[in-house]
Amino acid sequence: MPMQPNLQTRSRLTLTSAALAMMLSAGASVALADDLTPKTAGQISYVCGGVAQDEQQALNSESRNYNLSLLFTQGARGEYLADVDVQLTRHGKEVASFRADGPRCLIKAPPASYNVIATYQGTTKRATVQTGSTRNVQLRW
Predict the structure, then answer these.
(1) What superkingdom heads the lineage (predicted)?
(2) Contact 102/35 with Cβ under 8 angstroms?
(3) Strand 44-49 and strand 104-108: pairing?
(4) CATH superfamily, domain at 39-140
(5) Is 109 strand, coil or helix?
(6) pLDDT tens per residue across span 71-110
(7) Every domain of the chain and the residues it spans
(8) What is the CB neighbour count within 10 angstroms for residue 105?
(9) 18-44: per-residue pLDDT in tens?
(10) End-to-end CA gap in the chain
């Protein structure tokens, strides 16, 4: 009989630990979702991030809801960049501009051809993209 209370105590501790782990995990998901909340700039909505593994996974799962993906890297090894100033233009007119706070940006834009102008530490890179066909664009400094 002395084993019964011990077993009950261990079972309660295990259940309590499991419940606590689930709550902490849910809290991390909520915090991640808050960090990756879509923003609006001009005619587009976008979300940037992707430095941490959990952000990369969240962006990968969300990518199907966006029609353009930008990735900012530097150097031969492709180190991730953040704080890149991004401007999208169409027919010479600005459609949107924002600062990318992570190396990957998912963009939802009206179907069209756009010029992406990205500036990092005074150096500008450019790309022309067509939503739907050129879904993934990497700009490397």
Answers:
(1) Bacteria
(2) no
(3) antiparallel
(4) Immunoglobulins (2.60.40.10)
(5) coil
(6) 999 999 999 999 999 999 999 999 999 999 999 999 999 9
(7) 1-35, 39-140
(8) 25
(9) 444 444 444 433 344 456 899 999 989
(10) 71
Rounded to 5 degrees, φ, ψ at 50 are 100, 15
| Tokens at 110, concatenated | 């009206």
Task: Answer whether 72's CB lies under 8 Å from 103's CB.
Answer: yes
Tokens of 32: 């991640």
Which tokens in the block code for residue 141?
A: 């400094």
Q: What's the CA gap between 90 and 134, in Å, rounded? A: 15
Task: Residue 126: name the closest of 113, 141, 107, 139 by CA.
Answer: 139
Question: Whole-angstrom Cα distance, residue 75 to residue 77?
Answer: 5
What is the pLDDT confidence band of residue 7, given thresholds at 50, 70 and 90? low
Predicted TM-score of the model (pTM):
0.73
